[in-house]
Amino acid sequence: MNWQNRLDDLRATYHVPGASLAILADGEIHEFASGVLHRGTGVEATPDSVYLLGSIAKVYTATLVMTLVDEGKLDLDAPVVSILPEFATADPEATKTITPRQLLSHTSGLTCDFMYDGGRGDDCLANYVQAAKGVTMDCPPGVAVSYSGVGYVTLGRIVEVLTGQTWDQALKERVFQPLGLTHSMTLPEEALSFRAAMSHLGEPGAYPDPAPAWDLIPRAAGPGARVIASAGDIVRLAKMHLDGGAGVLKPETVAAMQKREVDVPDKWTVSADGWGLGWTLYDWDGRFGYGHDGAAVGQYAYLRVIPDANIAIALTTNGGGARQLYSALFRELFDELAGVKMPEPFEPAEQPPTVDIGKFAGMYKREGVLITVTEDAHVSYEFVDGMAGLAPTIEADMVPISETVWAADGAGPSFSEGYMPVVFAELDGRDYCYIGMRAAPKVS
Length: 444
Hints:
The protein has helices at about 5-15, 55-70, 90-95, 100-105, 125-130, 150-165, 165-180, 220-225, 230-240, 250-260, 320-340; strands at about 20-25, 30-35, 50, 185, 200, 210, 230, 260-265, 275, 280-285, 285-295, 300-305, 310-315, 360-365, 370-375, 380-385, 395-400, 405-410, 420-425, 430-435, 440. By secondary structure, it is α+β, with helices and mostly antiparallel strands. The strands form four sheets. Strands 2-1-13-12-11-10-9-8 form an eight-stranded antiparallel sheet, sandwiched between helices. Strand 14 and strand 15 form a beta hairpin. The mean pLDDT is about 95.
């Protein structure tokens, strides 16, 4: 396959303004680019262009945290409050027990959609942790996966306390510099020295327009949501993990990060079968893989690694049908390079099973989000509280995949290639609804 031509063709098909692709195969990194970084200026995308990586930042923070474990500075199973006495949740008992291991594997019960601007100063993470004290938890610690941005900001603050540096500086000195990641950074002003991709927003089926701002994420969200990098540098980070730590981490630490900590009820939103320490874990027809997805506002990135084939692939994009581009391109690449068959897109069967929504109808609430499921299988996903007005309410009809897994139509490509997974689970004796990998408990 001519990888450049396929990137060009699929990028155009799915109306992605610009994209960069990096592939580690046969021990070499191949880098490609297509389209433009900014539809307003027409600046061309190049392999060394940098993009906002969104939640792929969590892999960087997890790697950074594990350097402290290797040095004996951090015990993953010690309570967070033993390191951060100021750490607190809305549940005093949970506060006493939550550990860094649970933060890394998204099993702490801490929520995700708590937006707080801790300011631009070096105290931004400390301010965030202080502000998050009273935030309602998604579920009790250790019960299940619930994707948590609050958890990763807390990990960033742990790094700061244990190193005496900002998270940004510690990441630079402990990860970027040892690996020679010259096109990786955390602060917007650092991106000015590079060809930086502009975010784009718009409706599916057409090229989107430049967003009103390049980056809408506060500095405090950095440990979970802001690393800025080239696709090639993402793959170089992955290569370190494939190479047993390459002097940054111990081989046994690299292996521990890939070990399954927990199964995932929602196996479709980010193709997750389980979660390790920072890594999303995949099982593709018996072939083990790991990686992570990332979504900034108007930029999307994807990283996948197949360790038994020594292959890593990263895709960075600046808007449009990025999820569809990822799905089509990676399906072809992994088939050709590793003989791996990725799962088919999440969608209902032509003849769906006859299932009654039954006991799952009702209201589900987590911090910032209200989910309403009606008895005629309609779902409403609304941002409330501090998230109110962030995006329009999603209204969608659902088709059953099974008794507990439903496909919501018309939700757009943010959650999957076409249908939004809605997953119901009973955890610790209580009913939950998963949308976007986040667990919302039933409230009525």
